[in-house]
Structures are given as C-alpha cells and as structure tokens.
Design brief:
The protein is mainly α and 171 residues long. It has two domains: 8-100, no CATH class; 108-169, no CATH class. 47% of the residues lie in helices and 8% in strands. It contains seven helices and three strands; from the N terminus they run ββαβαααααα. The chain has helices at 42-51, 71-78, 83-96, 100-106, 123-131, 135-149, 153-169, and strands at residues 8-12, 32-36, 56-59. The chain has a three-stranded parallel sheet with strand order 1-2-3, with helices on both faces.
Length: 171
C-alpha cells in the first residue's frame, strides 16, 4: 500500500516486492514517512526509512506477534478485526515509532563500551550519517548514543562532525 500527497505517509508492505528509487519523488510533500514491514524485515525497514532522511520512521509490529511479526496479523490478531481497535493500535505505534538511526542505536549491544564504538561494525557509518543531519536531529541522536553507550556527548559530536566532513572530501 502506498499513500502519498498527505502530511504523513505510510509505506506498508511495498518493500517486500522491492523498493524502487524512482518512487522517492512521490513522497516529496510528505512530512513524515512511516515504513511498516513484518517484524523479521526490520533491517530492510531501517534501510528504507533512511532513504527518506530525518522524515523516515520505522513501525515494528509488537513482539507478541512472534519473531516473524506479520504485519497483517497486527490487524487480524491484534485488533481482532475491529477497525477502531486497529486505529488505536496504529496511533500508538505512530507515536512510539523511531527514526532509523534511533532504532539502530537502540539495537546496539547493551554491553558496548564507549571505547569500542570506533571498532564496532556500523557505528562509524552511523556517526557519519548523523554528522550530516541538521543540528537538532544530530544532537538528539548523539545524546541517545551517549546514554546508550556511556560516552561523552561532546566527544560523539566531534566524531560525527569529523566523519561527516571526511565523507564530503573523499572521492
């Protein structure tokens, strides 16, 4: 399902058939883009939400739907077919949906020490992408990373700035 031209937009299930970059302009007027896939496709949902920049959010079906977390079951099982109950479930999910970078930070190992951040697969790329964001989004994501890993916010800001600048100068 693809709904566009609205202030907030949902991209549900279309990614299982393959996302087409040519569709990106369809979302240009959308303020927020919610990507909702099955629970076992969270990595794909994160990747797709990142293509929308800081407007992208990831909706993840609840854990009680099992490891696969079929999106269709969210309505059929979770709401028991009641449209009002589904609307309530969806509204709660929209409010609690995370940006793809916040979700990646949340998924980092809980025992990841600040001195291991540079060597952890994906953290350098994450810091580089965060370094390219606007000041408010960048600060919020780096603050979340600092809390998650116990690092100093000023050090993470410096690392994101350096990695973001070095990515601009690399051929």
């Amino acid at each position: 399902m693809l709904v566009t031209g609205l202030r907030d937009t949902g991209a549900c299930g279309l990614c299982t058939g393959g996302w087409q970059p040519a569709w990106l302009p369809l979302f240009r007027r959308s303020g927020r883009i919610y990507v909702a896939l099955d629970r076992d496709a969270t990595d794909r949902a994160i990747a797709l939400a990142r293509t929308f920049g800081t407007r992208g959010r990831v909706l993840i079906p609840p854990e009680d739907l099992g490891p696969k977390g079929d999106l269709n079951d969210w309505l059929r099982v979770g709401a028991k077919g009641d449209p009002g109950a589904f609307r309530s479930i969806l509204e709660r999910a929209l409010v609690t949906s995370l940006s793809p970078w916040a979700l990646q930070i949340k998924r980092l190992p809980s025992d990841l020490a600040p001195w291991d951040l540079e060597d952890h697969a994906g953290v350098r790329e994450l810091l580089c992408e965060i370094g390219h964001q606007g000041p408010l989004s960048r600060h919020a994501h780096l603050r979340l990373l600092a809390v998650r890993c116990g690092g100093a916010l000023t050090t993470l800001q410096e690392a994101a700035r350096e990695l973001g600048q070095s990515a601009k100068t690399e051929p």
